[in-house]
């Protein structure tokens, strides 16, 4: 399968705060997401911080794609955030 990544900010700067009800809906869906990742892909999730600004990571993706490193970049950022629990908004 050939995946074509598209950049999309879920919560760009200036977005209104999430309601407690919406945050709770997200939290309620987490066990199902973790089960799917584990059962279908063999991945144990350890999500990074919630509500971060991912714009730097999205910019990095565009640079990596232009250099022919898009697939490796996306795999590394996915692993960093979803498996290692890292803050992908940290530019360090």
Task: Give keywords.
92 residues, mainly alpha
Report on the structure:
Helix 2 (55-66) packs antiparallel against helix 3. The protein contains 3 helices and no strands. It starts with 19 loop residues before the first helix and ends in a 9-residue tail after the last helix. With 92 residues, the protein is mostly helical. The radius of gyration is 14 Å and the shape is globular. Helix content is 52%, strand content 0%.
Summed over residues and divided by their number, the pLDDT gives a mean of 91
Structural class of the helix and strand makeup?
mainly alpha
Total of helices:
3
Beta-strand share of residues: under 5%
Order of helix and strand elements from N to C terminus:
HHH
Report the principal-axis shape. globular
Name the poorly predicted regions.
none
Can you summarize the main beta sheet? none
């Amino acid at each position: 399968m050939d995946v074509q990544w598209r950049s999309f900010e879920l919560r760009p700067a200036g977005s209104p705060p999430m309601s407690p009800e919406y945050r709770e809906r997200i939290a309620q869906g987490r066990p199902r997401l973790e089960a799917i990742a584990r059962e279908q892909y063999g991945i144990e999730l350890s999500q990074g911080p919630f509500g971060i600004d991912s714009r730097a990571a999205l910019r990095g993706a565009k640079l990596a794609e232009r250099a022919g490193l898009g697939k490796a970049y996306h795999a590394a950022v996915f692993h960093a955030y979803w498996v290692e629990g890292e803050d992908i908004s940290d530019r360090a």
